[in-house]
Each structure stands twice: as C-alpha cells, then as structure tokens.
C-alpha cells in the first residue's frame, strides 16, 4: 500500500484520486448538460442531428481510452498520462467557447479523455493489496466522486450557460478540469509508485494475457452493457429534451432551469451509496453476498422499471405537461438501478485484469461505454419519430434485454471469479475491486 495514513479508513491516495476525478467529471457533465441545448437552440440543428452528434461525441470520448490504455501500459506511465490528458481536455473545454471550433473542440476533449479516463480508476486498485478487505468498496467510494462533480456541474455550468450565455458555461467546465489537474499534481506523495512496465522481451510471456474463457465472458458482458447503455444514456439526451417540453417546471412560482434536472441523478448517487454499501456489507458478513453479474442484472431491471414509469406518464398526459415531481421520482429509481450495475461492472473488469494490463482492461470497460453511447445516439435519433410513451417503453425493453443477458452470464462469471481467487500469483499487480 502506498500510504498507511487513512481517510475514512482508506489510503489518502484515494482522496487525491476522488477529488481529481470529481473535478474532471464536473468539467465533463458541465459541458454535457449544455451540449444538446446548445446545438438545438444556438446552432439551430435539428433534434435528430443533435442527438446523433451527442451520441457520436460520447461514443468517441469512450473509444479513445482503449488506445490510451495501451499507450499508458506500454509507454507513458500513469502519472504522465493523467497530466497530458487533463491538459488536453482543459484546452478542448475552453475551445467550446468559440462556435467555429465546435467540432474540433469535441475531438480535442475526446482525445484527452483517452489518456485520462482509464488511468485514474486503475490507480485506485494500486492503492490496495489483493488481501486488503477495504479494496472491495473502494470503487463505490470513487464513484461518489464522479457524482459529486456530476451534481455540481449542471447547477453551476448549466445555470451560467442558460442565464449568461452557453460559452461562459463551457468556459467554467474548462476551469473545473484545471482544478482537478492541480489537485492531482499536489497529491503525488500519497499515490502509489509507478508500476514497472514489461520489457519488450517479456511481451510474449503468458502472465500478461487473457485466457480464452475470461475474454469471452468480458465480451459477453460488453454486449449486455452496450444494450443497457443505449437506454441508460438517454438521460442526457432525449430525457433532457422531454424535461424541456413535457414537464411543468413551476415550483412555487419559480421556473426550475431545465439543466438542473441533470443534477438529480448524481445527487441521489451521493445519498444512496452509503446506506446501500452498508446493506451489501451486512449481507456479505452474513454469507449472502450477491454475485457481480447477478447484481448488474438486477440493476438493469430497475432501470427498465424506471423507464416504464416515464412511458406511463407520457401516455397518461395526453399531450399535456407533467409535474416535475414525477421526473424526480424517476431519477430515484433510475439511480438505485445504476448503483447496482455501473460501479460493479467497473470493479469486475478491474478484478479480471491480467498482470501488467490493468489500465488496458479498465479501458476496455470504457470501450463498452463507446459502443453503448454510439447505440444510444442512434436510438435517440428516433425520438421525433415515436410517440413519447412508446419511445420510453422501447428504452424499458432494451434495459430488460440487458438484464436477461447478464443473468445468463452469471455462472461463467462466477467460475472465473473463483479461479482468480484461488490462483493469485506472487507479485501480481494490486488491481482489484468489487
């Protein structure tokens, strides 16, 4: 372990990574909260085109990490990758303030994200030994940092963008990225030492590769999560459009800004995570811990139910607006399901990482986000062709299909987990999670 001092029972390096990631997510979600509205209201793009661009951007932002992860493991190292990636992303966010640079800015952010995104969570695992009991909850703690940034971003960047101009909101997102970089640089002494990268002569050694069964299971999970994300990612796309036109946003004479609803999901993550972790811990102590793939399947089912709620609301409204309270209740159910699937999936990929391929394997999880975001963009382009209730029912069906696939993968996933636990090699990299 890199640092024996603790922060709420965890290494202080987790604090550094938590805060760095929090501000990076502030910049990402701040820009994302404005993106669809900026394209439809400022650039005057059609809804289908804006939804496709939104999906293509988020897809590219999660494709570049697979290339970045390979570069980190083989050439750059983790510290250098975070610094370069954060600097490039900050530049991209500031470029968003200039309309002629819009597409170049999106590409710049995606490139920087490729180095930054897989590197930080792989360092979380490096803080713990494999037999350290705290490692099982570290990624859920880390995930709270993601959502603090996601909660603050729409309130600050979104409000400034709506009230004072979209470009000011994008600029504030860039400032957030620089704050995260400053925290990372100032906290280096609390982070684990850079792990040795294999020499070229060692590249063919079996200790560094995937076995066939593990690879097939990861691919299967990837397919299931891709289907799930085609529904999940609609909260920043078509659900945001519905919040603008299908909701009564009045609360005591105050018109709630449409971007504020994007803060509900991360807010509920922060509120729900501590009691949910405590419940899971009690179940584990009693010998009733839930297998990762089964937990993920349950999360996808809960997400499906949340979209069925929106479908029912849209059908019953009959063209009239719906109270914003119902959208808040949707986010309660939606977030509860999210906590079962997304941190669990990230932790599962980290656990199955071969020696010296920790960053690359975590990057593969974000490659799934690429395929899911791309499919979400295609699904979102159907918004204007479907009646809203039918569209939300379609999203519910996609999440349910993902749940079924994950449930079918559970036996194979459990077999690999048991095998990994029994055959931990001496000196194996400390990359493990839930």
Automatic annotation (TrEMBL):
Family matches, as PROSITE patterns: MFS (PS50850), PTR2_2 (PS01023)
SUPFAM superfamilies in the cross-refs: MFS general substrate transporter (SSF103473)
Keyword Lipid metabolism part of the UniProt annotation: no
CDD domains, per database record: MFS_DtpA_like
Keyword Ribonucleoprotein: no
Subcellular location: Cell membrane; Membrane
Record domain Major facilitator superfamily (MFS) profile: where: 13-414
Topological type in the membrane: Multi-pass membrane protein
Primary localization: membrane
Transmembrane segments: 12-31, 51-72, 102-120, 141-161, 167-187, 215-232, 252-277, 298-318, 324-350, 362-383, 389-409
Keywords on record: Cell membrane, Membrane, Peptide transport, Protein transport, Transmembrane, Transmembrane helix, Transport
PANTHER family referenced in this protein's UniProt entry, alphabetically: PROTON-DEPENDENT OLIGOPEPTIDE FAMILY TRANSPORT PROTEIN, RESISTANCE PROTEIN MDTM, PUTATIVE-RELATED-RELATED
Family note: Belongs to the major facilitator superfamily. Proton-dependent oligopeptide transporter (POT/PTR) (TC 2.A.17) family.
Name of the protein: Peptide MFS transporter
